[in-house]
Amino acid sequence: MLIDRFWKEMESVHSAMLGIGEARHVPMSPYARQNDGAIWFITAQGTELVEAITRGASEGSLIVTGESNIHARIEGTASIVQDRAKLEELWNPVASSWFDGIDDPDIRLIRLVPAEAEIWLTSGGLGFAFELVKSKLTGKQPDVGEHFSLTF
Questions:
Q1: Gap between the Cα atoms of 6 and 39, Å rounded
Q2: 87, 118, 128, 139: which has the fewest C-beta neighbours closer than 10 Å?
Q3: Distance CA 43, CA 34 (A)
Q4: How far apart are CA 9 and CA 124, in angstroms?
Q5: Phi, psi for residue 54 in degrees, rounded to 5
Q6: Per-residue pLDDT tens for 90-117?
Q7: pTM for the whole thing?
Q8: What φ, ψ does residue 46 adopt, rounded to 5°?
Q9: What CA–CA distance (Å, rounded) separates 111 from 80?
């Protein structure tokens, strides 16, 4: 099922560009959780994204590209969630470098629930390079992977 593949590929994504409402897209570390049907972000009070949600924005947009085999544009609903158990589940060395520990009062969780996505799955850097070389030798367009859209 394509939705299961989406969630599996998202597990390997360590950075993406998140935008909410009128707030510009900024680099964030996404934590995809299929069991929640959500992509989570650890951020801080006072950030542009948190302020956008506080002012009533809920339309979130996530751009994934670069390091993994998935490239995607994901649209959904964003909200701020206070959930200590979820924070403990997501807490990691990357997050700890931005805060004064897990009890820092400025920590905020953003939950993005995908509504729709456009996804490109590739075979990775070497596979992509191989397809480009092969296309030059055969004169045929390279097969750079799958492209599909999802509605959640």
A1: 12
A2: 139
A3: 20
A4: 12
A5: -60, -35
A6: 999 999 999 999 999 999 999 999 999 9
A7: 0.90
A8: 95, -10
A9: 6
pLDDT in tens, 30-79: 999 999 999 999 999 999 999 999 999 999 999 999 777 899 999 999 99
Q: In terms of CATH architecture, what is 2-151?
A: Roll (2.30)
Judge whether residue 128 has pLDDT over 70. no
CA distance 40 to 79: 10
SS3 5: helix
Identify the residue whose tokens are 């993005």: 112
* Angle, CA 5 vertex, CA 3 and CA 11 arms, to 5°: 105
Alpha-carbon dihedral angle through residues 41, 46, 49, 50, given to the nearest 10 degrees: 70
Helices (H) and strands (E) in the chain, counts: 5, 8
Contact 32, 7 (CB under 8 A): yes
Distances (CA, A) of 21 to 39, 60, 78, 94, 120: 17, 6, 9, 26, 24
- Cα gap 63→74, rounded to integer Å: 6
- Single-letter amino acid, residue 150: L
Residue 119 has, within 13 A of its CA and on its CB side, a CA count of 22
